[in-house]
Amino acid sequence: MNFLGIDINILNTPKHDRGFIPMEQFRRAFLAQASKPVAISVEMAQDQRSVYNTCVTGTNPAADNYYIERLVKFLLWARGGYRVGIYGNDNIFRHITREYSPTGKYAFDAQFMRRVYEREFQVISLSEIPESLEKSQKMGGKVTGCRIGFDAGGSDRKVSAVVDGKAVYSEEVVWHPKITADPEYHFEGIVSAMKKAASKMPRVDSIGVSSAGVYVNNRTMVASLFLKVSPEDFEAKVKDIYIRAAREIGGDLPLTVVNDGDVTALAGAMELNAHSVLGIAMGTSEAAGFINAHGNITGWLNELAFAPVDVSPEAMADEWSGDIGCGVKYFSQDGVIKLAARAGIELDENLKPGEKLKEVQKLLAEGDERAAEIFHDIGIYLGHTLPYYWEFYGFSHVLLLGRVMSGEGGNIILDTAKKVLGEEYPECAFALYVPDEKSRRVGQSVAAASL
């Protein structure tokens, strides 16, 4: 197939998404024609900056602009940053400035970063390539004492009571935070779960929280869990929701709140007894996290749900950002629901998304071949996307968790992804790992307890 004058060859294509064009295949085909150096920097703080060196063609402006704008988007959602620097091409600098302006194609992305970092978002022209400034911190792995681990997902919440590293109690409860406007619903759900775990131990020494979103100093900066909460209630009742919940359990108990993706990676590192782990949780959304080669958390955003994985102009848009071809529509229950319609499976529109996923998984358990095709297609998505992630993370292990990975569907995804990797990306030196069924469901809450 051809996209923006770039010929792309794909061996494995999803049955129910023939237009899928993997970002990694586009990247490789594009770079085969590119030789003009360009560098991109993203700054998260004065002492933290990531720099990525690449090339453009210089003769195909449409492809050059598209490649860099999507690369900037990936870096922003993977690394984070309030300032983007462009080195080496004035035309591309002007294009990125325009597209990431308040009226540009990526206004949502710029506004999100402005909100996270509480600083004006900027695109600047660089006269020289800056130095990368990376930092990381040790987190997790604490097992002594009586600890509560809470994992806030978009369709269920999980809590574990952990005593000296052993889970003595775990609970999983369905809830609907993303469609609820009253923050008291969220607060009461969090507190009731924590109180239940506390009742299973002689005391509580600390609380660790794994939660979708971006958190700074245990405060909620941005989180889709509170999508329907008004800005006023978010500021007054959501920013410190976990701090207030911890006080309900025990005054000044030590509390650590971390993005659920990083806790996924932490769970993998603990279980594998290894470092350099990318964790991906496929549930209500796509949550990702990374433990580097030193066993540390990097402080990157790792919000891969919003990172592009498909260059097809016909790709589905996500409801929050409005952009197309991003991970949330491929590696979450949304991806399953999207493919179910294309596979001819009619799902009751009155069902909530998590219930629709369960219906498809039930059909799979009953031997429905259409359901098997859905998970096979997700495996193809994954096999093509992990090499793209690898380009930026350089991980050695990938841990796959979440409701979509539960049961036989998860096994199909895993086997198919391995097949695609072997056939189209044999040079990728990383291993895929899926924990046992219980760990797939509640492993993050147990890992959170070690924070």
What's the end-to-end separation, in Å? 47 Å
Q: How many strand segments? A: 17
Q: Counting H and I runs of at least 4 residues, what is the number of helices?
A: 13
Q: H/E order of the elements?
A: EEHEEHEHHEEEEHEEEHHEHEEHHHEHEH
SSE-based structural type: alpha/beta
Radius of gyration: 21 Å
Uncertain runs are none
Largest sheet: 5 strands, mixed
The amount of helix comes to 25-40%
Strand content: 15-25%
Average pLDDT value?
Answer: 93
In one word, what is the shape?
Answer: globular
Strand order of the largest sheet: 9-8-7-10-13
Description:
With about 450 residues, the chain is an alpha/beta fold. The protein is about 40% helix and about 20% strand. It contains 13 helices and 17 strands. The chain has a five-stranded mixed β-sheet. A four-stranded mixed β-sheet has the order 4-3-5-6, covered by helices on one side. Strands 15-14-16-17 form a four-stranded mixed β-sheet, covered by helices on one side. Helix 8 crosses helix 13 and helix 10 packs across helix 11.
Structure described in brief:
The chain has helices spanning 23-31, 61-78, 90-99, 107-117, 183-198, 231-238, 241-250, 260-272, 333-342, 353-365, 369-393, 407-424, 437-449; strands at 2-3, 6-7, 36-45, 48-56, 83-87, 122-126, 146-152, 156-163, 166-174, 206-211, 214-216, 219-222, 255-259, 277-282, 286-291, 397-401, 431-433. It is of the alpha/beta class.
Question: Descriptors for this entry?
Answer:
13 helices; globular; 4-stranded mixed β-sheet; 39% helix; 451 residues; alpha/beta; 5-stranded mixed β-sheet
